What we know:
Layout lengths: L1 H32 L3 H13 L1 H12 L3 H16 L1 H10 L2 E2 L3 H20 L4 E2 L1 H20 L2 H8 L1 H4 L3 H38 L4 H26 L3 H26 L2 E2 L7 H19 L3 E2 L1 H20 L2
Antiparallel strand pairs: 1-4, 2-3
Helix pairs in contact: 1-2, 1-10, 1-11, 2-12, 3-4, 3-12, 4-5, 4-11, 4-12, 4-13, 5-11, 5-12, 5-14, 6-7, 6-12, 6-13, 7-12, 10-11, 11-12, 13-14
Amino acid sequence: MFWIIFIFLISCFVLLRAGTRAVKSLSRLADVLGLSEFTVAFILMAIASSLPELFVAITSAFQNKVELAFGNIIGTNIIDLTLALALPILASGAIITKRKAFQKNALFTAVIALLPVLLLLDGSLTRIDGLILLLSSSLFLSNLLKQKQQQSQAFEGVFNKIKHPLAIEGFVREFFSFLLSVALLLLAAEGIVWSAGGLAMASRLPLLFIGAILVALGTTLPELVFGLKAAKTEHNQMTAGTLMGAVVIHNSLILGLMFLIRPLVITNPRPYVSGIIFSVIVPILFFVFVKTDKSISKKEAFILLLIYLLFASIQLISL
C-alpha cells in the first residue's frame, strides 16, 4: 500500500512538470510552423494524450475485458467536455469560440461523440461498427486539414522559415522537448492508473465503474493538466483544441480499433444506462455553449462542472 501511494504522488508531480513544458514547446512549434495553436494542439497533443486510452482499449480487448475500456472511454469523454474544460475556464476566464472553424469543429466533435451511442441502439458494437468509427475519424481529420488553405501553405513553407542553422536547431530542440514532455505525461498517467487500479481492485469494484471513474480520471489527467497549464499561460485555444481532438480520437479511432479486435455485446444494459444518458447530454450541451454568445463563460463552465459531479455521484450511488 505504501508503494502504491508513493507512485501516485510521484506520478502527480511528474505530470505537473511535464504539462508546463509541453505547453511551452507547442506554443513555440506553432510559431515556427505558422499554424494556429488550436490546430497544433488538436493534432499533436490530442493524439499524444489519448495514448493511455489506446493502450487500455487494446489490452482490454485482447484480455476480453471490453467493458473496462468502454467504461474508460465513456468516462474520459464526459470528463473532457465537463471537468477538464470547466476547470481551466474557471481558473483563467472564458474561451472565445466565435471563429467559424472552431464552431464547425465543435459540431463535428459532438456528432462523433454521439456516434457510438447511436451504433449501440441494437445492443451491440460489432466489427462493422468499428469500421464505421474508423471511417469517421479519417473523414474528420481530413476535413480539419482542409479547412484552411493557408495551413497546407504553412507546411510547404516550413523549411523556408527554419532554414537558418540556429532556427533549425531551435525547432529540433523544441520538437524533442515536446516528445519528452509527452512521454513523461504518459508515464505519469500510467503510474496513476496503476496505483488507482490497484486500490480499486482490492475493493472488488465493478469493471465498468473502474473504467468510467477511476481509470478515466487517470487517463484524462494529461488533458486536464495540459489544459490548466495552457489556460494559466493564456493559451486557451490549446485547451479547447486538445480536449475536442481527444474526444474525436476516443470515439472514432480508439473505439474503432477495439471493436475490430473484440466486439461488445450488452446482455445487461442496467450498468450502462447512466453513462449512455450523460454521453448524449454532455456533447449536446457542449455544442450549445459553444454557439451561445460565441464563448464558453465561467457560468457555463460551472454548469459543466456540476454535471460531472452529478455523473460521478450517480455512478457511486449505483454501486
